[in-house]
Write a structure and sequence with these properties.
about 525 residues, alpha+beta, Phosphorylase Kinase, domain 1, Transferase(Phosphotransferase), domain 1, Serine Threonine Protein Phosphatase 5, Tetratricopeptide repeat, three-stranded antiparallel β-sheet, 15 helices
Length: about 525
């Protein structure tokens, strides 16, 4: 998505399905965008989640979106967001209407104020458990519990009334009393959905989930709330997933010395973070009772956690699909059984694993094997450098032939002049350059851009501004130089009343006749 004219921002002001006016963007993710909106007939503020139009041809995406609405409808708790409506517009745009909640997420609170006091953490966690208990009784697992999915709002005298958000990845638990046809087995084999920093070991390995997976994620969230740090350190999804499956969780006092005065709190978190689910509390109700007992214990301890800025980043990768851990990265005797249908991974991934220390670490491969791998990497690097230098010298001393299909790229900030081809004839494909991009890759990019441009032009003919915006924005994301994409995006923005940004795109096209004509009709400022 482009920053200046993205899909979500371009929809502000439209009336969706003749009922909901989209007033502001609240958030944007991989599948859709969330808007603050107004129900015109009832004069009520609501939140609207709109599936991105380019996904409406993806059967799995549509089923996941519909599943989110149905799953959330089943969760009856004052601590879970409620779905009010769900529908499809005549233009095949899928949307969901939720109650509008005015608050701030736990993640935002952590970023602004740092770690929470233990008593506050227990209070918020018990609210989340109320929503989880309702979900688990309906046969649903949240699967993406994290600080970003807990909203805090003031209700009466409670400044931290917690609401659990986004059951969009909820999945029917194995053994729930439903027919096989109604099971939502949409995740492809060997893939898991969620946020790596907070996934349970069984989720990381692609196993079937039950409510105890959510308890692990809640404990990981509580750990972050108490310390301001992630449970584990990592740079990639595979590193985080490996830690969850193999590395013993750290103790609170290791990050915040003051928390050493709450050994019972640390003991309970360690139990909830057990690698094997049968060692955790049985369910949300049992854990809630344990936290209730701890509230009295913690209230007598007194001290709050201090800030830990600079120790470890609070992270957050977004929710997404990730490859489940392959069997060779899991020690069956110490953590979990190998995942089913897991994809194979390169052997060198094993050497990315970091552990707490020699006493707590599971066995790793021999040093001899490690040296061989590192030596091989060094040799390959030297070969690569040699080839790169030779290629660069060769490129510097020659020019590509006229029929090589190479398209010269102008500087990024240069605008087309009067001699530029018409917008309809603009080539959207990326050039083949000395950096090593192949001709096939350039053709693939061109094909992808043209697919989006064709869809955007078709939407323009049909008067579907929403789809025109989305498809033109996708084309521009693949090829930022595409004149056709800029023109189509500008046209949609101007039709939606966003004259400033629409005209800005037209100005980027310089003296192109079509752009000048459209700017004149729209009365764009010079």
């Amino acid at each position: 998505m482009t920053d200046s004219g993205g899909f979500a921002a371009g929809l502000v002001g439209i009336v969706l399905d003749g009922r909901y006016r989209l007033d502001a963007v609240l958030g944007e993710g991989g599948m859709g965008s969330v808007f603050r909106a107004q129900h015109l007939a009832m004069d009520r503020r609501v939140a609207v989640k709109l599936l991105k139009p380019h996904l409406t041809t993806d059967a799995q995406a549509l089923q996941r979106f519909a599943r989110e609405a149905r799953a959330t409808l089943k969760v009856d708790s004052p601590h879970a967001v409620k779905v009010l409506d769900f529908g499809v517009t005549p233009q095949n745009d899928y949307y969901m209407v939720l109650e509008y909640l005015d608050g701030r997420t736990v993640q935002r609170e952590l970023e602004v104020d740092g770690p929470f006091a233990p008593s506050r953490v227990l209070h918020i966690a018990r609210h989340a458990l109320h929503a989880l208990g309702a979900a688990h009784r309906s046969g649903l697992v949240h699967r993406d519990l994290k600080p970003d999915n807990i909203l805090l709002m003031r209700v009466g005298e409670d400044p931290d009334h917690a609401m659990l958000l986004d059951f969009g990845v909820a999945k029917l638990m194995q053994g729930a009393a439903v027919s096989e046809r109604s099971r939502f087995a949409l995740t492809q084999a060997g893939m898991v959905f969620g946020t790596p920093e907070f996934m349970s070991p069984e989720q990381a390995c692609g196993h079937e989930l039950d409510g105890r997976s959510d308890l692990y994620s809640l404990a990981a969230t509580m750990f972050s709330m108490l310390t301001g740090c992630a449970l584990f350190e990592g740079k990639t999804a595979i590193e985080f997933l490996t830690h969850h499956a193999r590395t013993p969780p750290p103790h609170l006092e290791a990050l915040v010395p003051e928390l050493a005065q709450y050994p019972k709190l640390d003991e309970l978190l360690q139990r909830c973070l057990a690698k094997r689910r049968e060692q955790r509390p049985e369910g949300a109700e049992e854990l809630d009772q344990m936290l209730a007992q701890l509230e009295v214990y913690v209230s007598r301890g007194g001290a709050a956690a201090r800030s830990n800025k600079g120790m470890r980043a609070t992270m957050l990768a977004g929710s997404s699909f990730f490859a489940a851990l392959p069997p060779e990265l899991v020690e069956p005797g110490q953590t979990l059984l190998p995942a089913r249908s897991a994809p194979t991974m390169p052997a060198e991934s094993t050497y990315k694993i970091t552990t707490l220390g020699p006493d707590d670490s599971p066995p790793v491969r021999s040093k001899r094997g490690l040296y061989l791998v590192l030596g091989g990497v060094a040799v390959m690097a030297m070969i690569g450098v040699t080839i790169a230098v030779a290629t660069r010298k060769k490129s510097a001393g020659s020019t590509p032939p006229a029929d090589a299909g190479v398209v010269a790229r102008a500087p990024a900030d240069a605008a087309p002049d009067a001699g530029a081809p018409p917008i309809d004839a603009a080539v959207a494909g990326a050039p083949i350059d000395a950096g090593g991009r192949s001709r096939d890759a350039g053709v693939a990019v061109t094909k992808k851009v043209n697919e989006h441009l064709k869809a955007a032009e078709e939407a323009m003919k049909q008067g579907n501004r929403l789809r025109q915006l989305a498809e033109a924005d996708l084309a521009l994301g693949v090829d930022p130089r595409s004149a056709r994409a800029k023109y189509l995006l500008a046209d949609a923005l101007i039709k939606g009343g966003d004259l400033d940004r629409g005209c800005a795109y037209l100005r980027q096209l310089g003296r192109n006749p079509l752009a000048l004509a459209r700017a004149s009709v729209a009365k764009c400022p010079p």
